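Notes from the 1:1 (GR / supervisor)

We went over the backlog. Supervisor wanted to see one worked example end to end before approving the batch request, so GR pasted a single chain during the call. The sequence is below; no edits were made to it. Supervisor asked that the structure be written out right there so they could see what the output format looks like.
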Amino acid sequence: MVNTRAITLKLLKKIHVDKSYSNILLDKTLSEIDCSAQEKKFISALFYGVIERMITLDAVINKYSKVKTKKLDVDVLLILRIGFYQLLYMDSVPDSAAVNECVKLAKKCRNPSLSGFVNGVLRSFIRNDKQLPTGNTKTEKLSVKYSCPEWLIDKWLGEYGEETTVSMLESSLGKAPVTIRINTLKMPAKDIITVLESDGYVVEEAFLENCYKISGGVSVDSSKAYQLGLFYVQDISSQLCSLSLDANEGETVIDVCAAPGGKTFTTAIKMNNRGNVFSFDLHENRVKLIEDGAERLGLTNVSARQNDAMIFNSELPLADRVLCDVPCSGLGVIRRKPEIKYKNSDDFKKLTEIQYSILETSAKYLKSGGILIYSTCTLSKAENEDIVNRFLKEHSEFTGVSINPDIERLSDWCATIIPEYFDSDGFFIAKLKRD
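Structure output shown during the call:
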């Protein structure tokens, strides 16, 4: 039996010190340790939970500890976060176990006497009926409740209003669904579902054709259905974006920022594996992800290459469809990558010029009468509406056309997808047609 909390502490410390990506770090660690599925589940829940609720946890620490978070030893700070998360959000863990296990972790610190401090802080919280601190302003209250930085709450309140902001904050917490798209080029949908169920998955049909949510079962990449190329993981918003291209058999499509390849795969399958999908990424190792995915799915109409989306490549053919899914702040996928919300707002300021440059370059690849999709997985008007409105002002040869007239929320030429709409990631799509 492994010490799940000790492993979680090591993971959190690596995130704290090295600023590693949580999903990559966790996946690598869990693949290397010998422990049960239940233990892995506990580590994942505690690890992601502490990151997700960090602002709330630190507010609690500052309320019950005489030493504030900024002055605490890193190990002690992380141990207290682990303890308070269990006391607040893990009903399956008895309060006594949460405290005692954290005390044991503290005894292994450089200063073992700090275990008494940890014990006292956690138990004072329990004695006070686990009362949470409250903020003084609307922003502070929302920040503590939803563990979101105040700058981001103020941004969303200004751009989307209070009702939508609260909806986005609520959707930013908790485990995101695993949504897949099945590969009907391999076999009929009903047969794929049978294979998925034989892998132990519970399969739930989503509102999109060939789109399903799965739960339970083995890890995705070890499942028979995955190895046979019968499906790939892709969020509903991303699927809607890909389908909005409306690519047809025999056409030429360019996906300028494609890795890991989900949108390319959805497009290629919709084209019945006929035509050409040029799938690009800036980094060679990510191009390999596209190549491997296309091979597993049996897609021969995909050509993956390294390319800089900001620089026009005169060797490329003109395309009927161009997908411009640009690098972004990722504020729509906080539920999957909670560390994103703790970045400084200044970190995102340079993105808009990069995004606009990629959009302008991408437009040059499009044939007359062709369709250009601009998309992001963020909820930020500076990266979304402001970019496409600027583009349309400077390029009169482009006009907006309906993304999907059959879906009310996508009937206009540009749309922000709030997570609650489809239980999906937050997303933005703009569909433009060249004269």
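Supervisor's comment: Residues 129 and 406 are 51 Å apart (CA to CA).
Batch request approved.
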